[in-house]
Amino acid sequence: MRKAKHVALISAVVFTAVACVYWDTWDKLFVQRSGWLMGDGGYSIALPPVGAPKGTPGGGSGGGRHYFLFGDSWVWNPGFTQPSSHQYTHGELVGFSNAYGLSGNSAAIVKYASNPWTPTSIDFFARERNGDCDGTFSNCPVVKLKDPHTASKVRDAAGFQPRRVTSDAHQWPRAAIYIENPATGLPANYQAPAPINVNEPFVAMGFGEVGGQGRWGFNYATNITAEIESWQFTAGQKFQPVVGTGVTQGNWGGTFSIDWGAALVHAPGDNKTLIYGRRLGLGQIDAVLAVAWPSASLPDPNRWFYLYKAGKQGCPSSGPCWGFVPTSDVMVDDLHPVAEKIFNDFSVDYVCHNEPAGPAGPAVNACAFVMVHGTYPENVEPGGPTPALDPNCKPVTGLVANPQFPSLATVNARWGMVRTTADPWHFPAARHGSEGTTRSTYLADQLIHPAWDRELLCDSAKAKRRMVRQLRGQAGIREPGTLYLSWYIGIWEPEPNEHEHLWVNNAPLVESERKSNMRFGKFPLSYVRPWCTAQGTCP
């Protein structure tokens, strides 16, 4: 099946240090929490409030929830406060038994009463081992970590999205999505793949399997308007990717060239879900695109349509087209790169905003697809200016060789990039500057937080291997005129948890002094196209 190419209206952007305002309200949600210590990831989706009618979209004013998914997570025993004798040795907590690293992941629910960007509460969740819960996905009960629980039993339950059996590999979360009305736009005689019931709203939660040869998939939940402890969870199928010719050894423990679910986009009222994947080549990662059309077909990649390059796999020479599932290395290589030179973690959101009239032009009421990801100097296209390197902050040092990028073992991975486009098939180049009247890219260093962040990332004693990681957009919690961003202060291997030692100014190592490893900022949309023309702030 082939679809005709549509006209691309593209604009790209990247954010500046000047534009990004830190949002301490959200930073502080993730520190000094009973039961939950830390986690990376931070994918989120907007959900309706508890008790809302079936089919209610998420993210509305007047009350709702944000659902966060975290990767490698640590939990405390209830009520435990970290002692001053705490220390780290190669990422392991030493000297006490009250903190446990999950062999999986955790989740959080943030509730708000009025505006989505004004949280009123946060609770963290995992699963607690209660009998044999390795054999099925859902028979370990979900527990709220501030309620009575046993941290060792939470650890043994293998995470919020647990492994199916003991032999399964560790699972990292990927993007999630809420489909509030799966019955929208179904063709005649449509039969949804298991476990989807088209009459039930559902949440799909992506995962990638560590050490599993790049296997990936989605887990599912229904009964979404109930509290999370009462959701009905179902394990989805795991998929083994077709390997292309540009294969390299990844830090996931296996060789692969592509996986799916890095970003998921569904506009309320639409009948399709865009599925962005990562294609890993030799020294470069590109974003590729598939679509579940209708969204209820998400569990079955054989029903998706995949975007191929112009002149490949039956596409016309004039542009890309949709085709069937790639089943060979050639087909993987022929997938159309919708964005080149991205990074491991990226987000794509569909953002609508009405920018008021300004000194440079009339109001701009428009929507765009917004991609956010981290980057570094060697990953930026030549031909445009680059941010000045801060002479008072050294590059990341002491990195082990990254097998994905063998020649770039000591990069300063602290730059951020935001790209926008009206056409999800085509994001602009990773280069600072404007491309005509519809495309722009603005690039900047992320080292822009107050002094304590600089101490963690720049200080000669504390900054070894530390970097900004997992930059992504949080469109569900943005206030008008802004895009919220989140990122994570991390290090490169081989000490994956040393970065959580976030105390500054020689503070005592107690919870009241610990800084959040999850960071948030808000970026004005008026800095990017299509909205920047009103204020005259386009790059």
Can you describe what's shown?
This protein has 539 residues and is mainly beta. The protein has one domain. 4% of the residues lie in helices and 34% in strands. The strands form eight sheets. Strands 2, 3, 6, 7, 8 and 9 form a six-stranded antiparallel beta sheet that branches. Strands 10, 11, 12, 13 and 14 form a five-stranded antiparallel beta sheet that branches. Strands 17-18-19-20-21 form a five-stranded antiparallel beta sheet, with no helix packed on it.
What would you say about this model in short?
Helices cover 4% and strands 34% of the residues.
Major β-sheet, in short? 6 strands, antiparallel
Give the oligomer, counting copies of the same chain as homo and different chains as hetero.
single chain
Overall form = globular
Task: Tell me the Rg in angstroms.
Answer: 22 Å
List low-confidence stretches: 1-19, 88-96, 246-256, 396-412, 493-500
Percent of residues in beta strands? 25-35%
Number of helices: 4
List the helices and strands and how they pair.
Blueprint (H helix, E strand, L loop, with lengths): L20 E2 L1 H4 L8 E12 L16 E13 L10 E3 L2 E3 L4 E3 L4 E7 L6 E9 L14 E3 L6 H6 L14 E9 L22 E8 L6 E7 L9 E3 L3 E2 L8 E2 L5 E2 L1 E8 L7 E8 L4 E8 L12 E4 L12 E3 L5 H5 L12 E10 L8 E12 L39 E7 L11 E3 L3 E3 L2 E2 L5 H8 L7 E8 L8 E10 L26 E7 L15
Antiparallel strand pairs: 1-30, 2-3, 3-6, 3-7, 4-5, 7-8, 8-9, 10-11, 11-12, 12-13, 12-14, 15-16, 17-18, 18-19, 19-20, 20-21, 22-23, 23-24, 24-27, 25-26, 28-29, 29-30
